[in-house]
Write a structure and sequence with these properties.
Elements: H1 2-23, E1 40-49, E2 54-64, E3 71-73, E4 85-87, H2 93-129
Antiparallel strand pairs: 1-2, 3-4
Helix pairs in contact: 1-2
Pfam family, one: Flg_bb_rod
Main location: other
Protein name: Flagellar basal-body rod protein FlgC
Length: 130
C-alpha cells in the first residue's frame, strides 16, 4: 500500500509539472536578455525504505529543459535579439498531453493497487474478528 501511495504522490507531482508547462506554453520574455518559459522536467527513482521494508518512488529532481528552444524572426518584438529573433517556450502541447494521459493512468493504477490492498487488509481483519 505504501509503494502505491508513493507512486500516487509521484504522479501528482508529475501532473503539477505538466500543468505548469501547459500554463507557460505561451510565455515569451519581454526582453532579449531573458529566456522564455522553459519546460520543466521531473525525474523519479526507486528507493528502498527500511522502515516499510519496501521500495517506494521518490522525486529525484526537477530541472528545466534548455534544449530545442524555438526562435522566430520577429524584429519588431520587444524580446527580439540584435538579429531580430525571439526565443519561444520549448513546450510541445502534444507531448504534454500525452504525458498527462500517462501520468493519469499511472495514478489510477496505483490507486487501484492501494484500494485492493486496503480491501485485503479489511478482509483479513474481518476474519480475525470471527
Amino acid at each position: 500500500m505504501h509503494t502505491a501511495s508513493s507512486g500516487m504522490q509521484a504522479q501528482s507531482q508529475r501532473l503539477k509539472i505538466i500543468a505548469e508547462n501547459i500554463a507557460g506554453k505561451d510565455s515569451v520574455a519581454t526582453d532579449p536578455s531573458y529566456d522564455p518559459y522553459l519546460k520543466k522536467k521531473i525525474f523519479f527513482k526507486s528507493v528502498y525504505d527500511k522502515n516499510l521494508k519496501a521500495n517506494v518512488v521518490k522525486v529525484f529532481r526537477e530541472d528545466r529543459d534548455y534544449k530545442n528552444i524555438p526562435v522566430r524572426y520577429e524584429p519588431n518584438h520587444p524580446a527580439a535579439n540584435a538579429e531580430g529573433y525571439v526565443k519561444y517556450p520549448n513546450v510541445d502541447i502534444i507531448i504534454e498531453t500525452a504525458d498527462r494521459l500517462e501520468a493519469d493512468s499511472s495514478y489510477i493504477a496505483n490507486l487501484q493497487v492501494a484500494n485492493a490492498s486496503k480491501s485485503l487488509l479489511k478482509s483479513t481483519l474481518t476474519m480475525i474478528e470471527k
